[in-house]
Amino acid sequence: MEIATLWLPIIGTMLLAGFAVGAWYGGNKGQALWYGFFGVVCLLLLITLQLQEAIRHDEPPSQKAGEAATIQARAYVSVNDAGLSDLIGDTPPTVFVSIKNTGQTPAYDLTWRAFFTLRDFPVSGEFLLDRQKDAPKSILPPGQSLFYQWTFTDWKKEFASRISKGQAAIFAVGEISYKDAFGNVRSTKYRLIHGGDTMVAPGKFGPAAEGNEAD
Q: Which of 14, 83, 138, 203 is deepest in the core (most CB within 10 A)?
């Protein structure tokens, strides 16, 4: 493409201003017409290539401005904190996840499905959210947070030891769905882990290797 846009104007100009004019005044009008024809073809081809390049790379200024405004002003809802109480003996730990709208406009029709689970590590099987019941909808204003806390039941003393040895892990799994102020449906899926082969600090969760994505 760059080579064509460099040489087409040179060749076209030479054919028109050089060979065509020279042949015309030299008395060879037929040859002059052919030189002129090919010179015009070169310049038209140059214009066509430039138009195609502009269409492919450039968007209308109004469309660009609209997309920039959406990106800057839309709602962004994601996990901003997650942790758990100390794993001591047979005391069931309390776990929590907090999500926050870090955008500039509210998140509408927000639903949040979440659960915590203890799994052997390396983990096998799927992490399935309960979709049997309709999740309540809410509006999350910019800068505001939602908090979910839960305490494990049927906790056994050996669980803490297995987690510390990397043989088990606690997972926080969730899906956030909402509509931004521009009518676009957004979603955030997260899977956090404490234990296993991760190096997260005590009392904290880190991102799992899979299951984290946002739109």
A: 83
120: helix, coil or strand?
Answer: strand
Q: Are residues 156 and 205 in the same domain?
A: yes
Residues 143 and 48 in one domain: no
User: pLDDT tens digits for 119-129?
Assistant: 999 998 899 99
105 contacts 127 by C-beta, under 8 angstroms: no
pTM above 0.70, yes or no: no
Does one domain contain both 109 and 8? no
Helix 2-13 and helix 29-57, axial crossing angle in degrees, nearest 10: 150
* Beta bridge partners of residue 151, listed in sequence order: 94
Distance CA 94, CA 208 (A): 20
pLDDT band at 81 (very low <50, low <70, confident <90, very high): very high
Extract the tokens encoding 136.
């309540």
Distance CA 97, CA 63 (A): 37
- The residue behind tokens 């600090």 is 201
Q: Give ∠ CA 17-22-27 in degrees, rounded to 5.
A: 140
**Measured between alpha carbons, how far is 65 from 214 in angstroms, rounded to an integer?**
23
Note whether 110 and 135 are within 8 A (CB): no
Structure tokens at 53: 């390049």
